[in-house]
Structure formats: C-alpha cells, structure tokens
Amino acid sequence: MATVLTTRALVLFAHGARAASWAAPFERLRDLVAARQPGVDVSLAFLELMEPRLPAHAAALVARGVTELTVVPVFLGQGGHVLRDLPLMIEQLRADLPQLTIEVVEAVGENAAVLAAIADYCVGSLHPAA
C-alpha cells in the first residue's frame, strides 16, 4: 500500500471472492490508477470474503491522515451490493468517522466511457468477416 502523500485517497471497492487469484485484475487496475495519480493514496477494499474490508480500511486511512475519500464501486451493475449494502456502509462510516469527507461515484459499469471501452473490446474480439 502506498504511503499517504496527501490527505486524499481513492478506494476501488470490489465484492471479494474466496479465490485469491480473483483479485488479480483489481490489483492491476489499482496499480494503473496509482501510476496516474501519484499524489493520491490508491487502494482496494472489499465488501466480503477478502481483506481489507471497507470499514476497517477507511478507519486505517483516517489514522494515516486521510481526510478526503472517494470510493469507486468496481461493479458492472447497480445490484443490491451497490444499491443497498454500500450506502449503509457509507452511512455508518460517516457516523463513525465524521472527520472524513466521503464521495461515492457511480459503479464503473454504469459509466458511458467504461461501457464504450468494453463494447470496443467485444467488437474487436470478432474475427474479420471472410
């Protein structure tokens, strides 16, 4: 995990899984984002099954001096975890960590640019017509 250079942090929030290998693409994404934002603490946190969980991770960030947190749900859709579980978790974090400003952005799969990139990949996977 990066040392905090500023008081800002960006947490990529994912579901989590039993298999450790499941996190590999999220770790690569974290590294790509961190390389583009060297002055921001960029990390991963999970809903369940993997560590760190978002509540404990947010508390650790505050202990390191973070005052502004942006949470990016790395989910393709706005299912129950994004619509119910995450808002409840954020509400509790705001109560527990009032010194922390928290912004939650849309799930990555709801973003038009992300969908366009995925569509480009899908179309590019087709072999040229004969």
TrEMBL record:
<protein>
    <submittedName>
        <fullName>Sirohydrochlorin cobaltochelatase</fullName>
    </submittedName>
</protein>
<dbReference type="Pfam" id="PF01903">
    <property type="entry name" value="CbiX"/>
</dbReference>
<keyword id="KW-0456">Lyase</keyword>
<feature type="signal peptide">
    <location>
        <begin position="1"/>
        <end position="19"/>
    </location>
</feature>
<dbReference type="GO" id="GO:0016829">
    <property type="term" value="F:lyase activity"/>
</dbReference>
<dbReference type="InterPro" id="IPR002762">
    <property type="entry name" value="CbiX-like"/>
</dbReference>
<keyword id="KW-0479">Metal-binding</keyword>
<keyword id="KW-0732">Signal</keyword>
<dbReference type="InterPro" id="IPR050963">
    <property type="entry name" value="Sirohydro_Cobaltochel/CbiX"/>
</dbReference>
<dbReference type="GO" id="GO:0046872">
    <property type="term" value="F:metal ion binding"/>
</dbReference>
